[in-house]
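> example.struct
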């Protein structure tokens, strides 16, 4: 193999592919990135047991070939080279990267040991505008669980209906839903993706500046292929039954509160300083003319903050984990929050007060002692 390529093109491709290198890979070759010539470009691939990333970089191919090289080391080395053309050559199990002033040699592992994965499918391709996909991922991923004990809760469910496409995530204590309207009906779309992988796909799509997210199911293989410009991502789906969320979404409420999102966020942040040593609890007292937020830890102290709010219905006091409130408010799509509840032990339902955004979030309250 002999390839001439611009340092910028190679490093950009490596920086994307190298993200997928596990700290503790199950196979030694998964520490490596596969380099393979194809047509007028160099194909770089990285893989784990659940994700594959393939990136194409423009290059001049003088001699075809393929090999694998230690991903992190090679990426870091290329990043240190001056911005100029470099030559990659592979001979006798050694990959050499050479510029006019520098030359680095790397031991390799055989390309035949690198796992193969599909990069195209025959099923119908689904297209979601980047902005809509971005909203769907950002407004739900934070509600997914990080505990692998129940894999289905670590995912984001993407489900098509006659209303459009819905993004759903829950860790059992909170639920986040973002509905996206589509120009045409999408049939047969019901997948659970690992949340962290959708976040990574979003980052790549933003960097590649694609207008639409394109993905295709591989059916029985339980895999989906994402096409993101010069980058292809293949991910395994999470198998299992997603919780029946319709049963946990309240439809009637005794109390409704409308409050400015920015002020609400600021107040929760202040209270969080005093809640960290006390089960992360922030109390919200709903009064006729506003809200009273408080948190206290005997060893630290207490904070009380009052703010104006439009209140309808019964007065009450409800408590939430402040981390859940911060996750919500840091990703909230509207200037005003509508909080609805039927009591201190009933779920808190949070919506955009304007009604313009198809977003809904539910947080289970914390039972107060005494």
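> example.seq
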């Amino acid at each position: 193999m002999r390839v001439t390529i611009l340092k910028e093109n190679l490093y950009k491709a490596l920086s994307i592919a190298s993200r997928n290198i596990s700290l503790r890979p199950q196979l030694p070759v998964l520490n490596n990135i596969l380099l393979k010539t194809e047509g007028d470009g160099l194909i770089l691939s990285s893989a784990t047991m659940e994700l594959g990333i393939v990136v194409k970089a423009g290059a001049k191919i003088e001699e075809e070939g393929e090999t694998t090289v230690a991903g992190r080391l090679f990426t870091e080395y290329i990043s240190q080279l001056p911005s100029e053309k470099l030559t990659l050559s592979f001979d006798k199990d050694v990959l050499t990267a050479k510029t006019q002033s520098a030359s680095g040699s790397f031991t390799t592992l055989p390309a035949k040991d690198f796992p193969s994965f599909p990069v195209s499918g025959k099923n119908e391709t689904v297209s979601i505008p980047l902005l809509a996909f971005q909203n769907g991922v950002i407004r739900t991923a934070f509600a997914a669980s990080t505990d692998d004990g129940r894999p289905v809760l670590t995912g984001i469910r993407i489900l098509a209906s006659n209303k459009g496409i819905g993004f759903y995530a829950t860790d059992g204590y909170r639920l986040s839903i973002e509905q996206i309207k589509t120009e045409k009906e999408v049939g047969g779309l019901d997948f659970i993706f690992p949340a962290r992988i959708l976040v990574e796909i979003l980052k790549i799509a933003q960097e590649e500046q694609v207008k639409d997210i394109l993905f295709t199911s591989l059916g029985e293989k339980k895999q989906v292929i994402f096409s993101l410009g010069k980058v292809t991502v293949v991910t395994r789906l999470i198998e299992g039954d997603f919780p029946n969320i319709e049963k946990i979404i309240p439809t009637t409420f005794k109390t409704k509160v409308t409050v400015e999102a920015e002020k609400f966020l600021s107040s929760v942040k202040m209270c969080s300083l005093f809640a960290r040593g006390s089960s992360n609890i922030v109390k919200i007292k709903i009064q006729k003319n506003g809200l009273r937020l408080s948190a206290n830890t005997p060893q630290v102290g207490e904070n009380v903050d009052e703010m104006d709010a439009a209140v309808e219905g019964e007065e009450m006091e409800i408590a939430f984990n402040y981390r859940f409130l911060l996750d919500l408010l840091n990703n909230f799509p509207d200037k005003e929050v509508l909080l609805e509840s039927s009591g201190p032990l009933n779920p808190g339902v949070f919506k955009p007060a304007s009604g313009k955004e198809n977003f809904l979030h539910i947080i289970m309250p914390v039972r107060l002692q005494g």
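> remarks
The mean pLDDT is 93.
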